[in-house]
Amino acid sequence: MKNIFTLIAGILLIGSLSFAQVLKVQPWKKDISLVSKYLTVSLDELINHKGFLGVSDNRIIVGNIPFQLSGRNDANCIFMKEVGWKDWQKDPSSYYSSYDSVPTEPDPTRIMFHIPVDYYSAAYILASCENDKNFSNILTLRIGKFGGGHSMTKYTDFVVHVPRAESSRGGIGLIKTDKGNVFLMKIPLDNAIWQDFKNSYMIDVDITKEIRLAIRRPDPCRYQTRPLGLPSGIHIYGITFERAPVKMEVYTEQPGHVFNEPQVPQFNVVLTKLASIRQCDIEAKATDYYGNVTSVTISDIKIPNFGPKTVPMKLQVPKRGYYDLAITLKVNKQPIFTRYTSFALLPPDDRKYRHESPFGTWDFCGGHFTCDDPDVVGPLYVKAGLRYGMFGFSEEARKKYGIIKGNDMKLDAKGIEALAERIKTDTSIKIPERLMIFHENAISGEHIMRVPDVFTGRKYILSEAEEKKFKEMWDIAE
Fold first, then answer.
1. What span, in angstroms and rounded, lies between the C-alpha atoms of 342 and 323?
2. How far apart, in Å, are the Cα atoms of 242 and each of 112, 124, 272?
3. Which residues of the chain have pLDDT under 50?
4. Mean pLDDT, the chain, integer
5. For the domain 246-346, what is the CATH code?
6. What pLDDT, on a 0 to 100 scale, did the predictor assign at position 12?
7. Rounded to the nearest 5°, which phi and psi values hold at 476?
């Protein structure tokens, strides 16, 4: 009999724990400790709907988290029904995608704002979802830089499932209303992306729905991740970001994180205390191509109150090759975020005939947001055994690393004639060994992007315009 009562009590306890805690809404009198720990986001310019959460104050605290709600009377939340990828039916094949740019004018399919660059560990939202299952309840925060074709384009996805309004479970807790529940959700920002943007003032936050793989037809090599699927049924009333208690940045002294034996791969983890903490740990996991893991943990690290602390981590990996690396920061034994990167361990660089190497590579030398520092690029050429490249850098920089320019000049017929005339009067011009008459030329975009006939079984027929372009190129070649 005693066992039966114990079983019943256990079932009742489990049942009670499965329901979310009912949270109180309290007015927020600006507490300096909360201001320093949290960044509240004003959504006044983004809200588009009148939801069922009614509160008298627009500055509130829910579950010890401050929020800044809208002060407008006509609307109080973001309803994400229209949010998504508006070009999904066009499936454009342009080199740069308009989706990867910050909208320059109001766009109902994009909900985007900007926050100061800082080291955040979590985002909190007050949200609920439509009960209708024809609406998706998946929310994605895409955080980074949407520079399009003009500046850096790099963003990371953080995902959360928002409970439906009729649910009594989910999140940290819920606010009860007559028309449904609103949930306090925590989104861990557990990917340590922040050092990638430390030279920027602001970072972009794109609120969107479920992210899926978008493969362009008929060429499967053209793909992106885009907000697709069912329309979103999520209503958002408030968003707040929590600053991390510790700033973590990860570096090596080797360009490209490429090491040569007998070097032991070493990463320097730079920690800066931003809040009062007792201790922290760092765990590094290096995973090789076959899935074998090498782990290193440094525990009980004491960070000074002022200034950073650099913690060297040596990774005694058993084999040469490429490794994925994850370095996790734990505060009071709880993971805060992880920095994901990679490195390579190569044999000793004892090449005797690199000066005769036939190998080289294309290098934008700062174009298309590539590295513009020859003292970073040059050592990688040496470690890879390359001899040709770096053609956008100075002759002096190439000579320092034993590199020959290696790229050929492209000139049309008029350009060749002009070069010949210049050579007659300017003896400093070196006569090129070769000239290219075609470089990144194409008969048409459709032709160059087609799937080869051998894979489709269908013969590609040139259009009238393509036939004309082909004849022009043929005549030039002759």
1. 6
2. 19, 8, 16
3. 8-17
4. 90
5. 2.60.40.2550
6. 42
7. -60, -45
The 8-class DSSP code of residue 191 comes to: B
Tell me the one-letter amino acid at 110.
R
Please spell the DSSP secondary structure of 104-157, one letter per residue. Answer: SS--TT-EEEEEE---EEEEEEEEEE-S-TTSB-EEEEEEEEEBTTTS-EEEEE
pTM of the predicted protein model: 0.85
Rg over alpha carbons for the chain, rounded to the nearest Å, is 29
Q: Which two tokens stand for residue 148?
A: 């399009």
Q: How far apart (Å, rounded) are the C-alpha atoms in residues 383 and 438?
A: 31
474 burial level (CB within 10 Å; 0-12, 13-18, 19+) = exposed
Phi-psi region of 423 (alpha: psi -120 to 50; beta: other; left: phi over 0): alpha
Helix (H) or strand (E) holding 198: none
Please say whether the beta carbons of 403 and 374 come within 8 A. no
- Domain ranges for the chain: 20-243, 246-346, 354-400
Per-residue buried b or exposed e for 65-82, using 16+ beta carbons within 10 Å of the residue's own CB: bbbbbbeeeebbbbbbbe
Instruction: Look up residue 274 and give its two tokens.
Output: 């931003």
In the block, which residue shows the tokens 């920027």?
Answer: 200
Q: Identity (one letter) of the amino acid at 119? A: Y
For 392-418, give one letter per residue: b (16+ CB within 10 A) or e: bbeeebbebbebbebbeeebeeeeeee
CATH 3.40.50.920 fits 20-243, yes or no: no
In the chain, the amino acid numbered 372 is D
Is residue 372 within 8 Å of residue 366, measured between CB atoms?
Answer: yes
Burial of 256 (0-12, 13-18, 19+ CB in 10 A): middle
CA nearest 195: which of 239, 156, 151, 139?
156
